[in-house]
Amino acid sequence: MERGSLTIITGCMFSGKTTELLRLLIRHIIARQIIQLFKPNIDNRYDKDKVVSHNRTSLEAIVIPKDNPNMILELIGINTTIVGIDEIQFFTPEIVQVCETLLSKGVNVIAAGLKQDSDGRLFGSMDKLLIISNFITNLTAVCVICGEEATMTQWKLEGPLKTGQIVVGGSEDYDAVCHKHHKVI
Ligand SMILES: [Zn+2]
User: Fold this and answer.
1) Model confidence pLDDT, tens digit, residues 29-67
2) Which of 38, 48, 71, 144 has its Cα between 20 and 30 A from that of 97?
3) Which architecture, in CATH terms, is 6-139?
């Protein structure tokens, strides 16, 4: 069987990763491919949910515990040809082998994730996922301070104290900034 391909969409927060993920998945739906979309739940619940982009496009997603990415292999349908994964950086390291297994079955994987946390450190297994990927889309945002290309996520100085690497937040907690305006807090 021909190996599937892995596409990684990365970049800082507010760079449109989820919008791009949904755009690619919707193209495959139009092409009559069978897709399944997964996202991690950091509260370790299993549920159905939607992945919604800022432009309000949405697709139904299966929410699985971030500590058990092997559930993707258990939940995959026999006819599924495309697996989408949002926020892939939150999964534990087994996610790399899960992707390898999907690829070896001929399934194409399209995943979106942050490669750096707000301190500029590696997020999750993004290094290994980028290395085994066939295609990489690296998106940028706009620096809230100078308006140049933003590639970094900034924890807001005036926000509440950050308690660890995994803090799910939105525009109230984070900004996109350029390298010059990024501060490690
Ligand atoms: Zn800047």
Assistant:
1) 999 999 999 999 976 566 678 888 777 788 999 999 999
2) 48
3) 3-Layer(aba) Sandwich (3.40)
Which residues make up the environment of ion ligand 1, defined by Cβ < 5 Å?
Answer: 143, 145-146, 178, 181
**0.70 surpassed by pTM:** yes
What is the mean pLDDT of the segment spanning 6-11? 98
For the chain, give the percent of residues with pLDDT over 90.
77
Dist. CA 86 → ligand 1 center (Å): 27
